Amino acid sequence: MKRIGVFGGAFDPPHNAHLALAQAAIEQLQLDQLKIIPTGFAWHKDRSLSAAEHRLKLTQLAFSGLDRVSVDEREIKRAGPSYTIDTLEALQAEELDAVFFLLIGGDQLVAFTGWHRWQDILSRATVCVAERPPQASAPAVTLAQTSALRHRIHLQLPPMTVSATAIRQLIASHTGSPNTSQPDLAGLVPDAVARYISLHGLYQARPTSS
């Protein structure tokens, strides 16, 4: 049967750790295809995402060089909240001869049992967790969460501390003062992503009203 990976996220912006996870998943899970799916409306986030058109273009630029990888626009185009179960059900209806592997980060694992219809997700896909380096501020995974996902697969990744939050904060800190240029994003995001961010002035600090 065809082995298809599903990797969803805000990708605001996509960065090198996302690419490392994609490459590790393709190799370690022996995937025939990996679908990268930018979130449309992120019901679970407490901040507004960048415009969908920018996040989609950034994602296409970031993953364009990887074999067996395609960017899927369905959640961007879907009205209402982006629920993973809806995406999995749609994909399974299209790929009747496939098995699915859902890629999530260690931070998403903590919140997984709060996802919409999370039990149904487990019946439709094997959950594969990419653990980030431990952080003192990171919430612990509860016994109930561990039990619910006892059949999950752990992906082995090189240690990387880059995060989308840190990148946004870095850019904002450099653009919030006069005479400062965009910071060097080498090693954090692909070159094409860095150029797009600079061209469109993304993540720059907004001036405060007086």
List its traits.
210 residues, alpha/beta, six-stranded parallel beta sheet, 9 helices, 39% helix, globular
Broad structural category: alpha/beta
> Count of helical segments?
9
Question: How large, in whole angstroms, is the Cα Rg?
Answer: 18 Å
Distance between the termini: 61 Å
Quick take:
The chain is of the alpha/beta class and 210 residues long.
Walk me through the structure.
- The protein has 210 residues and is an alpha/beta fold.
- 39% of the residues lie in helices and 16% in strands.
- The chain is built from nine helices and six strands.
- It has a six-stranded parallel sheet, with helices on both faces.
- Helix 2 packs antiparallel against helix 9.
- The chain is globular.
- It starts with a strand and ends in a 10-residue tail after the last helix.
- The model is unreliable at 135-139 (pLDDT under 50).
